[in-house]
Amino acid sequence: MIAKIVGVPDVHTVHTATPLLPGDWLAFGETLLLAAAGSLVASRLRLRAGGLLIPLFASIVLQQTGLMTIDLPRWLLAGAYAVIGWRIGPRFSRPLLVHAARKMPIIIASTLALIAACGGLAAGFVVFAGIDPLTAYLATRPGGADSVAIIAASTHVDTPFVMTMQMARLVVVLLTGPAMARFLASRVRPPP
Q: What confidence tens digit (pLDDT) does each residue in 69-101 have?
């Protein structure tokens, strides 16, 4: 919808479909080994989000230096997308929905403000950096990087740019979030 509103032309580079089976079984095995090893290292080091970040950064370095090729077959991606969906769904409990209903005006206003701020940043990318509007929108859109990855993988956008921006945002939040939360918690009084 965003692409049509901002007038993205229908002509895009054609992405090849992800194959059902791994194209290179050795690369697929290395990819699985990297994911498992990264998660193991993260758990041993007790790093929050390390299970995501360590394999992510290691795969970037290894692939960019030519030491490894990431190979993810379609069935693995589909399974990963299903697991992400199954993780999100059960979080919506009745007490959470009741609380959200009471706070709905604040939630809607905050959401619209966040979307507007991200849209302004995306417009800046389009105007000043020459990024196509859909890529700019996905790179700056709020929400989880997992859902952005799913959308980017199924559309004709500059996926490396989108994921780099999303991961940069994630790293900034991980580095600054705890300090910001402590700062805000020390300034806000709990209700009587």
A: 887 777 887 888 788 778 777 878 888 889 888
Residues 55 and 99 in one domain: no
Q: Indicate the pTM of the whole model.
A: 0.54
In this predicted model, what pLDDT tens digit does every residue of 100-136 receive, in sequence order? 889 899 989 998 998 899 889 999 999 999 998 888 9
List own/partner pairs for 124-132 with CB under 8 A and 24 or more apart. 126/6, 131/158, 131/161, 132/8, 132/157, 132/158
The packing angle between helices 133-140 and 104-129, to 10°, is 140
Query: d(Cα 1, Cα 137) in Å, to the nearest integer?
Result: 11
DSSP 8: -
Last residue in a domain, options 91, 110, 132: 91
